[in-house]
Design a protein that fits this description.
single chain; alpha+beta; globular
């Protein structure tokens, strides 16, 4: 049992309050759990996790279930907060509210630092107890002195329990779809950028001072070498500053890149289903390639431009103090506007070139993906139709972009040298400028030239990133689509179907696609009672798969309503809706990922897998006739099956999709033409398995 002070523990009745305080969000209604007293611990933990996920969504946060090891708990707790820890006690479940930096938020709203070892001992008290007794006897027999027994006890415990998993942890984080500026702020990116700008400014000023010492002494023609000491100290100071700048730049780049990649991955799962149906493999590949370009070009180009702007600002002050004075400083600012115009011209040429390049990429990928069809059905004299015209268009666009690139990379920095020297002509004509001020003006011009070279390269990369962004932004924006969190108390109501025989009730469903005037479904009604085994037949294009997409929540009906166990999707929430209804889409809309057979089987089961899960999966595979396949695989269920499952036959993939749906243990299983590719013998085995395993089922078939 946990031996933590009662003043540290939050009771279930105040869990919503703790969640709101940890995330600095609005107050949350506390969970009303009808199963806290009588349910098993695993059932309560599952329901609690679902409640936390839904509650966090209502305040714009994400509750991520996590686990750690006994040996890694102390290290992980430092970066764990804000988080909720489930602590079993002798009086029932309780919770700890973890703040960043290994601190606790207590129910009386105090923030107290705590030793992670104390929390770990409380969470692992049951498994520690028998080992502690054994360790204590060993220490006494070995006559270990009392002061040393504590250290020896901890070392032995860490060794014995190093692999023990500690669960019941929920990390409270910003979801990937949250405001990106807020994500950057939580990742401390603005602070790092400010530190980077400050460090680079100091470095640049010290570098100018170092050369000022050299120049001033050379111009005076003095023989005193005392200036070498401060000059050397300035140069030595630049070394740690340069190391710090490189480290800060690396931290910022890695952090921003990780956030961007996470958001793009998240956005790909939030896209509207119909937004990419018309796109081929080449177009999708092009979008992925452009997302990589955004990350690479934006970060590297952004840092170059960031540093260059700092140098230009410093150069303005240097030029203002030189012989050219305000005239040279003004010319530097005007040249900044000229460079902006040249950069915009390059951006437009790059955009046109990228459109042509990606179109060719699409055609190439489509040709490779469909090469068998082309060889078998397309006349040989038509295999390369249009390729010459496309290449000519590509070469013409490439030439225009190369010219624009040359203007940006070569003209911008070298043009400034001409403009900067022209700004010195009045000072030479008047002849009243000292040699020192002329030297400052020339030095400032060269400093600005160095900055322009950086800025030109940075602008070149940023323009490329901006072009790539136009194709990647759809993924970035799609991440903001929020799933329905559902009513919080629904997380604890897992057995409604036992008292309500009506599982699915769909009334007056109407749905039409945006590009069609006539609805695909019109006034459709459907009732599924718990335990039903239904077959829905119809002609191709009659709306059967559309109905499945409405039932699973992939699409929303134009009008009408769908209830599961008497609740609509807004009440149950998207996650709970998916838990109660599992579907195997049509073959061309299902997918085998480039992973192991087991990974593809358990794709719909996000919980931590146990040996019992693998035994259940093996039993289902045997019943579906996949036992011969698994026996042939050297690694069994852990065998890699190749991208898109190319190592599996059509029928084997179909049965994998069926097993995947059955393993979700949903109240209703929908199979959309999942038996079409099976021979009579395997069809009989698959039907027997599905009828035996599914609580309720709806099978879609052609007439």
């Amino acid at each position: 049992m946990a031996n933590l002070p009662e003043s540290w523990l939050w009771p279930p009745s105040r869990l919503g309050e703790a969640l709101g305080l940890l995330t600095l969000g609005p107050p949350i209604a506390n969970p009303k759990s009808p199963i806290t007293e009588s349910a098993e611990a695993s059932e309560y933990s599952d329901a609690l996790g679902h409640w936390l996920e839904s509650a966090a969504l209502t305040i714009g946060r994400e509750a991520q279930p996590a686990e750690t090891t006994y040996s890694g708990f102390k290290r992980d707790m430092r970066s764990m907060g804000p988080a909720i820890l489930h602590v079993p006690t002798s009086t029932g479940p309780a919770f700890l509210a973890i703040l960043p930096g290994s601190k606790l938020l207590t129910p009386d709203l105090k923030k107290i630092p705590v030793d992670p070892a104390i929390i770990r001992s409380a969470l692992c008290a049951i498994v520690e107890a028998p080992i502690l007794r054994e360790i204590q006897n060993t220490l006494q027999r070995a006559q270990i002195p009392g002061p040393k027994q504590a250290g020896a006890r901890d070392a032995i415990l860490r060794e014995r329990l190093s692999s023990h998993r500690i669960r019941g942890i929920w990390l409270l984080r910003l979801p990937p779809g949250a405001d990106f500026r807020e994500q950057l702020r939580h990742a401390h990116i603005p602070h790092r950028l400010f530190a980077l700008a400050s460090a680079h400014t100091v470095q640049y000023v010290l570098w100018i001072l170092a050369w000022y010492l050299v120049g001033s002494n050379m111009l005076r023609g003095g023989t005193d070498r005392s200036w070498l000491i401060p000059w050397s100290l300035l140069l030595l100071t630049l070394v740690p500053l340069r190391v710090l700048i490189t480290r800060l730049q690396g931290w910022a780049a890695i952090s921003v890149g990780a956030l961007l990649k996470q958001r793009l991955f998240f956005g790909s799962l939030r896209l509207e289903p119909d937004s990419i149906r018309h796109q081929g493999a080449g177009q999708l590949l092009g979008r992925v390639l452009e997302s990589e370009a955004v990350e690479a070009l934006a970060l590297s180009g952004g840092f170059l431009a960031f540093v260059a702007l700092i140098e230009i600002i410093v150069a303005i002050f240097v030029l203002a103090a030189g012989a050219g004075g305000v005239l040279q400083a003004t010319l530097l600012f005007v040249w900044l506007l000229v460079a902006a115009g040249i950069t915009w011209s390059y951006f437009e040429r790059n955009r046109d070139w990228t459109d042509i390049r990606l179109a060719m990429t699409h055609d190439l990928v489509e040709s490779m993906a469909g090469h068998r069809t082309r060889l078998a059905q397309l006349a040989a004299n038509s295999w390369h139709t249009g390729e010459d015209q496309a290449l000519e268009k590509y070469l013409k666009s490439s030439k225009a972009m190369d010219q624009s690139t040359a203007r940006l990379i070569a003209l911008v920095p070298r043009g400034w040298l001409v403009a900067g020297l022209l700004g010195l002509i009045p000072a030479f004509v008047r002849g009243n400028a000292s040699s020192g001020r002329i030297a400052i003006a020339v030095g400032g011009t060269l400093l600005a030239y160095r900055a322009w070279r950086r800025l030109a390269n940075g602008a070149w990369q940023l323009a490329g990133a901006a072009v790539a962004w136009q194709r990647t932004a759809v993924l970035f924006r799609a991440a903001t689509r929020q799933e329905l969190p559902g009513a919080l108390d629904m997380s604890f109501q897992r057995d409604i179907s036992k008292t309500s025989p009506l599982l699915v009730d769909a009334r007056e469903l109407v749905f039409h696609y945006h590009d069609r005037a006539e609805p695909v479904l019109h006034g459709t009604n459907l009732e599924i009672v718990s335990g039903d085994r239904l077959v829905l037949e119809g002609q191709s294009g009659g709306g059967k798969s559309t109905l499945v997409s409405l039932l699973t929540g992939v699409r929303e009906p134009t009008s009408g309503r769908i209830l599961i166990d008497g609740f609509d999707r807004a009440t149950l929430g998207a996650a709970e809706w998916r838990r109660r209804l599992a579907a195997a889409p049509q073959f061309h809309e299902n997918h085998v990922l480039a992973e192991t057979f087991a990974f593809n089987l358990f794709l719909g089961r996000p919980t931590v897998l146990t040996p019992a899960d693998f035994e259940e999966a093996r039993a289902i595979c045997d019943e579906l006739g996949l036992d011969d396949l698994l026996d042939r695989m050297p690694a069994g269920m852990l065998q890699m099956v190749g991208e898109t499952g190319w190592q599996l036959s059509h029928g084997e993939r179909s049965r994998l999709y069926i097993a995947r749906a059955l393993l979700q243990d949903a109240q209703l299983v929908i199979l959309d033409e999942s038996f079409a590719a099976l021979d009579p013998e395997n069809l009989k085995r698959a039907l027997e398995c599905v009828v035996k395993r599914a609580r309720s089922m709806l099978v879609i078939a052609h007439r």
